[in-house]
Amino acid sequence: MRIIYDGKYEYTTFSTIEDRGGADFTFTNITSIEPLKTGTLHFIASVPEQVEKDGKPLKAILTVKGKTYEQIIR
Q1: What gap in Å lies between CA 34 and CA 74, rounded to an integer?
Q2: Which residues, listed in sequence order, are joined to residue 68 by a DSSP beta bridge?
């Protein structure tokens, strides 16, 4: 997943998965989800404070199995 800010700045994300019923997070690369169970993933990006406050365009781009999806955040 990537975050695009103001149409020109790109930030990468990392994933984490909820642990202990959502009370904590743990690493996705060491956690398995049993068959017929569910898990909640979170993708996190570290961005400058300015990104949160200035109102310029912001979107998330997710690519899954070769298909690209865009989510407009603002």
Answers
A1: 36
A2: 63
Which tokens belong to 52?
Answer: 């949160």
Please name the residue ranges forming H helices in the chain.
49-53
Burial of 58 (0-12, 13-18, 19+ CB in 10 A): buried
DSSP E strands, the chain: 2-5, 9-12, 14-19, 24-27, 41-44, 58-64, 67-72
Q: Which two tokens stand for residue 58?
A: 């912001």
pLDDT tens digits for 7-65?
999 999 999 999 888 888 998 888 888 899 889 999 999 999 999 889 999 999 999 99
